Amino acid sequence: MAVLSVSRRTVARSVRAIGVVSASAALTLGIAGSAAACNINEFSAEAECDGDKGVITVTDVDPAGVPATVTVFLQNNGADIKKIGEQVVKGSREGTTITFEEDWKPNAEYRIHVKAKPYVDEDIKPNLTTPSTPCKETEEEEPPASTPPPATPSTPEDEESESPAPSASESEPAAETGSTPPADTSSNAPSPAGESNLAETGANSNTGLIAGVAGALVAIGGGAVFFGMRRRGANSEH
After folding, report:
1. In a 3-state reduction of DSSP, which class is residue 27?
2. Cβ distance 58 to 112 under 8 Å?
3. Contact by Cβ (8 Å): 73, 84
4. Which mean pLDDT values do the consecutive 10-residue runs of the chain (238 residues) have?
5. Within a 13 Å sphere around the CA of 9, how many CA atoms are in the beta-carbon half?
6. CA-based Rg of the chain, rounded to a whole angstrom?
7. Rounded-to-integer distance, Cα 30 and Cα 148, Å
8. Interatomic CA distance for residues 74 and 82, integer angstroms
């Protein structure tokens, strides 16, 4: 009886030990799996070029392959201004990559959110900033060559208005043959002496009076000479 009781105790202890080891192993595996799924560092994002177009890629290296929803937002000054897209990814040890078609601009900022219940619900840090060089170089368009306006049919009135004006050499004979008033030659002829003297001395209406007095004096002088000669003749006769 004593031997039987000892063997039972030994078996019970062995079972308990095996249970503890199994539970510890299961707990370790569960913690390891949870830690692998919850690590946001297993997700990474890049801005790349697919030919001349831009794309954003997100890679998941979760070995447990827990499905995760990835959402990409375009940001400006710390705020979401546009939702680019949303996809589900199952990670792997080698890495699983999903692609979002986005013709991104240089130095643009994107927020990538990852949600894998009940393990992950946060953003990839830091936010994704695109390269400073675009995928396609912008070429400056040359301005179109200016085309002359279409010619309009001319009318007889337009032809008369567009006829060339006569040149200076053609207009000179007409000016020579035209009736031109003769030059005033009277201004070049010498004026009479009396007129010039009167003009120079400033003669006025007193000229007639002076001429009359002079004439009277001449007549008186002539009379005096006449009587003097007559008296001299009478004296010689005596």
Report:
1. helix
2. yes
3. yes
4. 54 59 52 58 95 95 93 96 96 95 96 94 96 82 60 59 55 49 51 49 62 80 76 64
5. 6
6. 67
7. 82
8. 5
